[in-house]
Amino acid sequence: MSFRTLTILGSTGSIGTNTLDVVRRKADRFRVFALAAGRNINLLAEQIKEFTPDVVVLQEAADIEPLRALLTDSGISANRIPELLNGPEALVRIAVASEADTVMSSIVGVAGLEATYEAVSRGKRVGLANKEVLVSAGKLVMAAARRGGAELIPVDSEHNGAHQCLRAGARGEATKLILTASGGPFRTASRESLEWMTPADALRHPTWKMGNRITIDSATLMNKGFEVIEACWLFDFAPDDVEVVVHPQSTVHAMVEYNDGSVIAQVSATDMRMPIQYALTWPERAEAPVAKIDWSETRKWEFHAPDHAKFPLLGLAYEAQRNGGAATCVLNAADEIAVEAFLSGNIGFTAIARVVEETLRRVPGREPSTVGEILEIDRAARQMARDVIGLRQVAFAPPALPAAKA
Questions:
Q1: Measured on CA atoms in the order 213, 218, 222, 223, is the torsion positive or negative?
Q2: C-alpha torsion sign, points 20, 295, 284, 255
Q3: Are 25 and 19 in contact (CB under 8 A)?
Q4: Quick check: 128 and 282 in contact, CB under 8 A?
């Protein structure tokens, strides 16, 4: 396995901390060149002390001096404190730096799009854990990857599983990709009961511990819709050749059907360090610090078709990918605003889908040709979603809980 030098975009999040754990366990194989993080400067200071990056990029300029003070107080001498920067230009700088051959892209939202696009354009290996990159700008990013000769390796467990399954045969022999979904916290809830579900209800994911937005997206199945869009770009599948099945046990992460009828499945414990390490070491495999499946234990695996009427956002994602252009960018932006409004108690759970659908209807279709245009469309779609919520505030408001029966 070759030695790799990393830039980690989003080092204090779940993917970032798990990536650093992989680095910690294989210090003879990896070195950290740069870290980028949000506002958790206490954790970031600990990461700097342990991994000694050359450059660190913060979200806010106001956090630079407090971070410097934390490092000084911890005993780090001034000449060992990394260069401290902030802002989008600094993100791009560490993503394209010649000192790093590999970029882990795990900043949530479109904030990581430009830096990831530029890294791909420079032919870096990119471990992709940021859904918005391909959902918002899949056509541009994949074209840049082809031009630059980049290695774009997905880190999401489903796409990483698909990447592994596709090693079993030629791409032209694969006829269908099957992505699994846990079903979220409302898998067995009635369609009618969703009207009264609260943010606290929706944040109780049965399988994964994740950030608020992705957990709500899992509850609506929008997260799986985003994964369908990503899969189409990553593996060159048409939307109708990507199938979603609900698999509550979350052990089979993806399956690929081949033209001879064989189905190859990727199965592993639910530990993100496995797909992260796979992205860093591909095409080689190395011992990973994850639990092995005990096949002597009795187990049951279930697979069910998703309920599109109950979870309409999944169908909207398929439709947006078929329509092309800016539709998937609008889809992502509208969903983020609608999820924020739900978490704030301004709209009900089922209104999330209605906000997204109405925003898609109102934002004109266009074919963006630059990352700048994508970001412009993203801003416009967010504002439109806010306008939609404001115009229909009463209709979207959470309904009162039904009266208890005597």
A1: positive
A2: negative
A3: no
A4: no
List pLDDT tens digits, range 196-249.
Answer: 999 999 998 777 667 788 899 999 999 999 999 999 999 999 999 999 999 999
Q: What is the pTM of this model?
A: 0.92
Residue 165 carries which side chain, given as an amino acid letter?
C
Tokens of 238: 């048409």
| Token output for 380 | 């416009």
**Pairing mode of beta strands 252-258, 263-267:** antiparallel
Query: Residue 264 in contact with residue 256, Cβ under 8 Å?
Result: yes
